[in-house]
Each structure stands twice: as structure tokens, then as C-alpha cells.
Amino acid sequence: MFSERVYGRDVSASPDRSPQRLPRGRHGLPRRFIVHNQRERMLLAVAEAVAEQGYATTTVADIIARARLSRRTFYEHFADKEECFLAAYDTVVEQMLAGVGRAYEQGGTRWTQRVHDGLEAFISYLISEPAFARMCIVEVVAAGAEARGRRDAAMRVFIEFLEPGRDEAPNGVTIPSLAAEIVVGGIYEIIYTRLLRDAADELLEMLPDLLYCAIVPYVGHEGAERAVKEAQQRRPDDASPATD
Fold this sequence. Notes:
With about 240 residues, this protein is mainly alpha-helical. The protein folds into two domains: about 1-80, Homeodomain-like (Arc Repressor Mutant, subunit A); about 85-235, Tetracycline Repressor, domain 2. About 65% of the residues lie in helices and about 0% in strands. It has eleven helices and no strands. The longest helix is centred in the C-terminal third of the chain and has 28 residues, at about 205-235. The protein starts with a helix and ends in a 10-residue tail after the last helix. About 35% of the residues are buried. Mean pLDDT is about 85; it is low at about 1-30 and about 235-244.
């Protein structure tokens, strides 16, 4: 099912898998199950279609062809392509943020360590689910004002992860009010450009640099360097983050 495929760090299935089709005729399945199955197939279909051919050129016909459902069924669930896209975006982002938040909260007692683990979970997700990653990071920009507003709301969650860093600042150091917003916006732009050219794998190699840039406004150069070294010591160079 769609929700099981996008649940934070627990993701293991490939986004290229075709949606499951219900048997024809009298199958005895509850109506509630049928409706749920249809909706999830369309959410998966719009994510894959948009990731492959872009939001602007994706049509309702593309979505229903991938979901193997009728146009009538589509309009029983959604008013148009935009509404379907927003529903898929909300589903993916909600569960992705839940996985990232869980990694952050379980990252230990040190704030810098929690930031590292949250970033690692986020990047691992983007790499393991390229269709969903491209939909949420790249194509959301082209999906209209409502979609961009929801993107901005998701980015504010990452800003909240950084705000506790103000308590880490050395005595006498004042953290600019825009620090977290600047950090999140900068990291988003870096991720955007890598996904745009299908180079998500580069992000894992950039994790130490991303961590440094995320925390240096709060803990300074020496503190950021120390946190990066500690993170590398916790994870050997030849070990990759777990995504299952």
C-alpha cells in the first residue's frame, strides 16, 4: 500500500512498482477497502507521472492510465489534477517528516547529534524514493501557489529542528533571527539542484558538509567541526545509512 512505501526511514519498496489492481467482477471486498485502494493507486500514479514527465505536462489521462482506473473513478475522488497532486504531496510529506522527526528525537542527548541523524534520515529517504523526492522537492515548485505554500509549511518543520541550537551558542554570541530560515533555505536549494539533475546519491557524500553548515551559526567553527568528527566516528566510512 502507498502509505507503507513512504514511511520515513522504513521505506524499502521501489517506487517503480505498478499499483495493485483489484479483481474484476464480484470480489466481495468491502466498499471502504475498494475506495481506499483506488485513492492510493491514484496518489502513487500522480507522484510517478509528475516525477517522470513534470507537473506541467502531466494530465488526468496520464494518472488514470498509470493507476489503471477510469476517468469517472478519478473524479469521484478528486476535482482535478492539482487536488490529486496536493493529496499525494501531503501524504508523502507527512509520513516523511514523521520518519525524520523520529530520527531527530532518537538521535541522542546532544542537539548536534540529533540534527545529524535527522539530516541523514531525510537524505536516505530522498535517495531511496526518487519519484517521491522529485515530486516533493522539484515539481512542487511548478504545481501552483497552494502547493508552494504547503512546501513552505514543511520547511518550517525543519526550522523548528534548528531553533534549539540557540541554547548551544557560546556566551556572548547572538544568533541572528533568520539563521534557521537561511540554513533550511540553503540546504533546500542544494538538494533541489541535485535532484534536478538526478544526482541524489551525491547528497550522502555531502552529509558532513550539510551538517557543518546547519549547525555552524549556532556552535561556531570549532563546535561544528567537532560535531562532524563525532558523527563520522559513530558511523564508519564504509557504512551507509539504514533505510529498512
